[in-house]
Design a protein that fits this description.
heterodimer; A: about 190 residues; mainly alpha; 2 domains; two-stranded antiparallel sheet; 2 strands; B: about 170 residues; about 70% helix
């Protein structure tokens, strides 16, 4: 693996991560996405705050990471996927997301703003759900998780196009969607 | 500095800041932001505390050992940051039932708590099944243009729209 010039020494990682986590939680709460109403509002399509936050984060991060990648300051970490993992797992997550009204990060944030349903229901349920997954993992790993496996490919590899071209195309698409939200007053 | 004490910041400004935070995380920690692995490690730690060494032998824990790593510390920072944000704007409030839920389903704590718990169970299960959540796939993976993440994110919202729409139409809301 290539060397990352700014990679922190092991001893500094946890203090740095704590600081970054605090900033992330602060941002999530200021953005209103730690509120049950905001997330459910998105899922029933009356409040587009969640998509606005996510798409502008993807847009900014994608451009930033692409520049940093170009000058060899970062490495990419795309995750492996398969239809059995990404689609089935994603749908299970989604059904829970709609019932809970928070996701893992925003549930942790909601707990910090005093939402006890997120703490006792959300965090409690998630811990049991991940524990259950560790019980069934040895059964689904050789079966469901391998259905339609496509590895850790990225869109430029899938489309056989240069990374810059895809980044610019996706950036234009995201910018168009975000402008459409603001033009239609969503 | 008034903006620091405002209850809400514009969604796009928050998104841009999260995008920059991702860049910082890649630069200094060589990993994207993610939240759900920390839950898996925590449940592993709890299981290890209860069952002892037997838990450590599970195949999943060989893949994701139940240890306190920096990602777990990151997730532990989230409620602290949200607490500071809520206190700064005077919106910190101990609440068992969100107001929207209360309006549609009534003020009872048990229905809300049991629905949240069932939802949380599926969120935890699904996040590990898909290998990430709305942060790890939805933001971090999508910004790297990972195919797995775009597909998983589409599934997150498909399932979420389905469940929320059914739940609220059930109540005639």
């Amino acid at each position: 693996m290539e060397r990352i010039p700014f990679l922190l020494p092991e001893s500094a990682k946890k203090p740095a991560a704590l600081f970054l986590g605090v900033v992330f939680g602060f941002l999530l709460q200021k953005g209103g996405v730690t509120r049950y109403e905001t997330i459910v509002g998105q899922l029933v399509m009356v409040d587009f705050t969640v998509l606005k936050v996510m798409l502008s984060a993807v847009l900014t991060g994608m451009l930033g990471i692409q520049v940093l990648l170009q000058i060899n300051l970062v490495t990419l970490h795309p995750r492996h996927g398969s239809f059995g993992s990404s689609v089935i797992g994603g749908l299970i997550f989604g059904l829970g997301f709609g019932l809970l009204g928070y996701c893992p990060g925003t549930a942790a944030g909601a707990a910090g703003q005093g939402s006890l349903d997120a703490l006792f229901g959300g965090v409690g349920g998630m811990l049991l759900g991940t524990a259950f997954y560790s019980e069934i993992y040895h059964r689904i790993e050789p079966t469901v998780l391998r259905w339609g496996s496509f590895g850790d490919i990225t869109l430029p590899e899938l489309l056989r196009a240069s990374r810059w071209k895809v980044v610019i195309a996706v950036a234009a698409l995201l910018a168009a969607v975000l402008s459409a939200f603001s033009l239609t007053g969503l | 500095m008034d903006w620091l004490f405002m209850p809400r910041w514009p969604a796009i400004a928050v998104g841009v800041a999260i995008g920059l935070l991702e860049c910082v995380t890649f630069l200094f920690l060589d990993k994207p932001i993610g939240c759900s692995t920390a839950f898996a490690r925590t449940s592993g730690l709890i299981e290890k505390a209860i069952r002892g060494g037997a838990a450590a032998g599970k195949p999943y824990y060989r893949l994701f050992p139940p240890v306190i790593d920096w990602e777990l510390v990151f997730v532990a920072g989230i409620p602290l940051g949200a607490f500071l944000s809520a206190v700064s704007s005077g919106t910190f409030k101990i609440e068992w039932v969100p107001s929207l839920w209360g309006t549609v389903f009534g003020p009872g704590i048990l229905p809300r708590l049991s629905t949240a718990f069932a939802g949380g169970f599926l969120v935890g299960l699904g996040a590990r099944w898909a290998g990430g959540c709305t942060s790890g796939h939805g933001i971090s993976g999508c910004l790297q243009l990972a195919v797995s993440s775009w597909l998983a994110s589409a599934a997150f919202f498909t399932g979420g729209i389905l469940a929320a729409t059914l739940l609220f139409s059930l109540a005639g809301g």
